[in-house]
Amino acid sequence: MPDATDSFQDLRLPLLMTRRDFLIGAAGGLATRVRIKALAFDAFAIFDPRSVVVLADSLYPGAGLSDEWRTRQFEYTWLRVAAHRYADFWQVTEDALVFATNRLKLTMSGRNRAMLMNEYLRLKPWPDVIPSLESMKRAGLRLGCLSNFTRNMLAANVDGAGLQGLFEQVLSSDQRKTYKPDPRAYQLGLDAFKVKREEVLFVAFAGWDAAGAKSFGYPTFWVNRQGLPAEEMGVRADGAGETLADLVKFLTG
């Protein structure tokens, strides 16, 4: 049976994507139909972080290290933005790992610490990613990453996955010394693509990122791979699904 990406590959540009047209609210209650020209993906919508979890739990079985590390990792990004004490995502990730091991009273060798950190440089793409991205690229959409990862982290993962030719832009919030959902991070997409805000579809992995992008004004699709409820932040993504194949269906539907 053909999948969504197969049907997308057969489209021709003049007939491209009914759902690429969004009705954007304007002053006085009127609405303007806007055509999506570019997509900006969060890194985790592209790269599967589960290998980090598997490694942490194999090195320290039953300790709960992966959960404690991941929670503190993202708390540190937001705390540093709020406190105006910026450190990049690589440093934040290492600081969170140190905190997690201390809190759980684990002994960590330098070798294990390096193994866990370096796993963030060799993440594999989700199985649906490459065929979906190739379909969107052939259909004439401009593609980019917009992530809290550092530029080195993004480059290592893009290169390792063989995705160099698919992304026109690879953007790190480190370029603004902040983190999503700070509007300054989302602004990177507009500055790089040089299009209107409503012409960039942001593709989020986390519910908070979907809410942040939508609040910024991006049309937003949430790749909800974890099957989580939407965040209660007063906004909802324009579309949602479990994979990038669902994103293709959204765009072609």
Report on the structure:
- By secondary structure, the chain is of the alpha/beta class.
- The protein has two domains: about 5-10 and about 20-45 and about 125-250, Rossmann fold (3-Layer(aba) Sandwich), CATH 3.40.50; about 50-120, DNA polymerase, domain 1 (Orthogonal Bundle), CATH 1.10.150.
- Helices cover about 45% and strands about 15% of the residues.
- The protein contains eleven helices and ten strands.
- The protein has helices spanning about 5-10, 45, 50-60, 65-85, 90-105, 110-120, 130-140, 150-160, 185-195, 205-215, 245-250, and strands at about 20-25, 30-35, 40, 45-50, 125, 140-145, 170, 200-205, 220-225, 240.
- The strands form three sheets. It has a six-stranded parallel sheet with strand order 7-6-3-8-9-10, with helices on both faces. Strands 1-2 form a two-stranded antiparallel sheet. A two-stranded antiparallel ribbon has the order 4-5.
- Strand 8, helix 10 and strand 9 (about 220-225) form a beta-alpha-beta unit.
- The longest helix has 19 residues, at about 65-85.
- It is globular and about 55 Å long.
- The two termini are about 20 Å apart.
- Mean pLDDT is about 90; it is low at about 1-20 and about 25-35.
